[in-house]
Every structure is written in C-alpha cells, then in structure tokens.
C-alpha cells in the first residue's frame, strides 16, 4: 500500500511561542488551533502549513494524563511522531497485522478534521512513534 508523509508532530512547552516561531521565522501559516480534552489526547494542537508540509504542534493540557506530557517527561520537547497517510486505514491495518507489526489500539480515533488515525507500537518501529492516518471523507 502506498504511504505518504502526512505531518510531523512536535511536543512543545509553550504553544504560542512555537506558533510564533513556525509562522514568523519559518514563514508557515496557522491552519487550525484547538484544544482536545479527549481521553488519550489531552492536548492543545496547532496545525501549521510550511510550504505544503504540515507540522502539528502538541502541548499537553493535563500533566498527569496527557500522552504528550508523559513523552516530554521521558524525552523532553521535540519531535513526537511522524504520520503517514494511507489510502485506507482498515486495509493498512490488515497489512500491518500480516507483517507482524502491532498497533496501540487505545490510540485509534477520528480527529476533528475527520482524519482516522492510530499509532503503531514503537517496539515494532525501531522506537519511533509512527501514526497511520486516512481521510475517508476527503478526496486524496
């Protein structure tokens, strides 16, 4: 199955300073800025477009339960995940299963933009947090 880089997620401590850096210094455009208190997300998210490439800035809103907060306690701020867009998430998950790659089922969800996503188990991805996503209601 074809995969394309969709976005890079970056864990940040101050989302407003990070937005300023990505828009004023790197020349990006703020596409969306929202807060998600959904279980397993608990983050403020800013989507930045930098010349056709997307960056997701992720700041934890709950330091006890946010997976971004846990990540930052272990590794600090910086690149959190790399997301790959697939044509069909269900088909891609079947392919992963056949290849012996596990997913983190509790991360499967649909975000506010209609993107279906799931994270792969970092134990099976050389330690990198990898997200698979698709946009079933959009033309790819």
From TrEMBL:
Keywords: Metal-binding. One of its GO terms (biological process) is L-methylmalonyl-CoA metabolic process. Gene3D superfamilies: 2,3-Dihydroxybiphenyl 1,2-Dioxygenase, domain 1. GO terms for molecular function: metal ion binding; methylmalonyl-CoA epimerase activity. CDD domains: MMCE. Residues 4-135 form the VOC domain. The keyword Endoplasmic reticulum does not apply. InterPro entries: Glyas_Bleomycin-R_OHBP_Dase (IPR029068), MeMalonyl-CoA_epimerase (IPR017515), MMCE/EMCE_epimerase (IPR051785), VOC_core (IPR037523). It comes from the Bacteria. Belongs to the methylmalonyl-CoA epimerase family. This is Glyoxalase.
